[in-house]
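Why does this matter for the project? Reviewers at the last site visit asked to see concrete outputs rather than summary tables. In response, this paragraph embeds two records directly. Each consists of the residue sequence and, immediately after it, the corresponding structure tokens. Nothing has been edited or filtered.
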Amino acid sequence: MNKTIIKRIYSLTCASIIAVLLLTTLIQVFYTGNRIQNEAHQIVTMQTDVAMEMVENWLNGRKSYVESFAYSVERQVLYTRMEEFVMYISEQANKPTFQEYEFDKVYFADLEGNFWDSKGWNSTDFDPRVREWYIGAMSTDGLYVTKPYKGAGSGTNVITVSTRVYDENNNVVGVVGANTFLDLLFKEVEALRNPSGGYIFIINSDQEVLVHFDENYLTKEAEYLTLHEVNANFDKILAGDENEVNLGITTEGTSVYGLYRNVPNTDWKIISNYPTKYVIRTLAIEFLRAVLIGAVAIVITSIFIKNLTKKYIKPLEQVVDVLESVKEGNLDLNVSLIPKNSYELNALVNSTETISIFLKSYIGEIAKILECFANGDFTANTTQKYIGDFSAINTSINNITVSLIQLLKETTDSAIEVGAGAKQIANSAQTLADVTQKQSTLVEGFKQDTNNIFNSVSSSINEIQITTELIHEVNERASEGKDVMEQMVTAIKAINKSTEKISEVIQGIETIAQETNILALNASIEASRAGEAGKSFSVVATQVRELSINTSKIVQQINTLLSNNLNSVKQGETMVDLTSKTLQEIINSVDKTTEASKNLTKNTSNQKELINQLAKGTDELSTGIKHNADISSENLAVSEELTAHAEALKSQLQRFKIK
């Protein structure tokens, strides 16, 4: 649901004020934060400046003393007169500068490891050359400052400032050093603590804490604690440039702004820090103050907007409510109670009232005309003058009246024509129904004849199929007989060949018998010539001759039989060939008969299919004719009903009143 204009104005105004206040608050907080952060940076920088000046002053006084002491030793060449040198060192404790700079003692060590100090302390086990102050001075051009440590005699924190001593040839002859107490330095570092929590401390290049007001950071058991060992994180500060402010974390876990600065001629670093919580607290206070101011401004603005909308916007809502009633069909608009406290509201209320009057008048006349139309009177017309866009309604009503009158006239004429046409359609439908009935009877008879032909052809096809199967069986038997005859021909030919071979063997035997007969004859002749001695041989020769003659006769008989048998075989072979040819002709005839039977079966099947299609077509034709008969009957009924409706339509159209 859409919001009202009052709610929209109220929402937009409040949103705009809130946005402006929020933007103003953010800008104010941003600039305040920058200002406070810059102030914190300035505090850190000022602390560092003060600490640097303090440390430099503290160191410079002690460095000056050591440089002056070394210069006196070099100028007076005291290192060559040890007794005088020892006395000179002892006298240093009584000088005002010695006491002013809080020195503990001064001493000298030569290159051989000999050692003399102002308190007269010495030890055979003590080798100064391994001490930090000696090694540092020997490796540094100028003064060297050691780490703080506990003094052997005093037990308090001290540092040593040392430097090399040269002879007249600029050769190093030893190192002088002076121990100074750190109490004053610790007090001054303590004095630099800020009431807001800012402070400074001193570390070396290894991040070992040298000077700090908190004893938790200081040495324990002769060792120096690093920042990491006390859980302090100043890595970002030390990783930045000198005098660059960065964030760090103290041992207590407090976030701080901090920077470092290198102490000249030492590896000391002064670190100054300031807690960030004061910056955050100030920002929170500024933000809360801005929020309170914004809340008060929103309340005041809300009251002002409500009074303004009540006086000038509320009447608009009343006009909207009146117009909303038009949407529900209420044209009797009452605007007498709506205030007219401005020119715009006066014009809007008067226009709404005028719209109500015109709408009631126009819609009343239109309703009257439509009521006449509903009662069948199409002679009614508009009488008022329709202005503006309403003139199109007047034109449309007149056009509707003319169109409806014309439509009714044309409908009446059409109803008359439809009635006459319906009668003609009824007569034609009756004639069509009679003709269709006759066609249906003829088609039914033709359908019955077609079915009889189909059944007869089907029976013939079955008989032809049986005949075809018998012919096929005869063909198979003839083929088998042909195969047997071919086998018989082969056997007869084999017998013929065997007989010929036997005949050849018999002829050979006959030849042998003839030759034996000749030999027997020759033997008889030779036996007769031999006389008595050849009688027995002659008898044998005679028997052999008789045997050969008998053999020759038998061979001739066998040969005669074989010749007869061979002739019979040849006649049988001829008859078998004739029989085989006859069987082949029978097979050929059967094949032709089979092919003719197949063609007859195929043609008969085609005839059956055609007759079947004819029967189906006849069925479809019969169905179509029956459907046409039904349609003809329906057309007859529809035409009769159409005639009745046409008469009823003419009767109803006579009720309308037209010009």
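We now turn to the second protein, recorded in exactly the same manner.
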Amino acid sequence: MERVLAYLKDVKAELRKVSWPTRQQVWVSTLVVIFFSLALSLYLGILDALFTALFGALLG
């Protein structure tokens, strides 16, 4: 039990050393991820439509 308490004490000490992002940094990072996810989805959707049309014309 003593080892568990020592471990938890060390964890608490390490968490105090962490440099946590501000609310604004988290918000901006989230928006960047959403934007790039949507952009990549759009890009891949367009490529899929083009290749579908191309192979449909070649094989159809």
